[in-house]
Protein: Similar to Uncharacterized phosphatase C823.14 acc. no. Q9P6N2
Amino acid sequence: MTTVYDPAHTLDKTHPELLQKKFIVFTDFDGTITRTDSNDYLTDNFGMGFAARRKLADKVLTEELTFRDAFKQMLDSVAVNKSFDECRQIVVDKIELDPGFKVFLEYCLSQDIPVIVLSGGMEPLISALLQNLVGPNEIPIVSNGAGKSPQGTWEITYHDDSGFGHDKSLAIKPFTEARKNLPEGERPTYFYCGDGVSDLSAAKETDLLFAKEGHDLINYCKSSGMPYRVFKDFSTILADVKDVVEGRKTAAEIAEN
Structure:
């Protein structure tokens, strides 16, 4: 299967103005910006079902399967029952936004703070959901895609060759490398919001990780000793980001709590 990752077309190349920003928020999408994971919803209701999906998820946790292989099996089970256009309409109709995200996004845009989605999901579904839930704001999205399968239905097209299908750290590393050349007091601050193990590599590239309450990412942070801040919804993140942006606290101080 071909991938879409091209080092010549990373965010720092396609959006070079981002390198000049003092703050950037990188965020996962499904289960972080949304209250329900759209891909899980599709799999549980129109594919293999909850029990079979959980069995695959458990195999990922025990490293019997890569996330990449398990996720493809889940989505392939949906593709035999629903067209991609039907899936897009289903998620627009059924998936809800985190109750605090729209206010959070408005604050960030008012402060010239880019919000960038890094997702293991599929860009057409993410774009449709964001358009429906927050309107036509310009939110850069780096994610997997979708294409026609050999069987004539549709299938996920992965961003890169990693075991996750999308190594989210690839989008952030050019920014962290660029800021190394700046004096410490002039270096931008990068935030990351996520809920799952696929967010860990990206979070390691940023200054403050917000890990969603009750999800797998917290367990991985605890086992690896990585600092993090628990969040229930984006109202928590907004308060903490404001404290950093407005100079009341540093990212390191917040991560310690």
Notes: The beta strands are 23-27, 115-122, 141-148, 154-157, 189-194, 208-212, 229-231. The radius of gyration is 18 Å. The mean pLDDT is 91. The chain has one domain: 7-37+95-255.
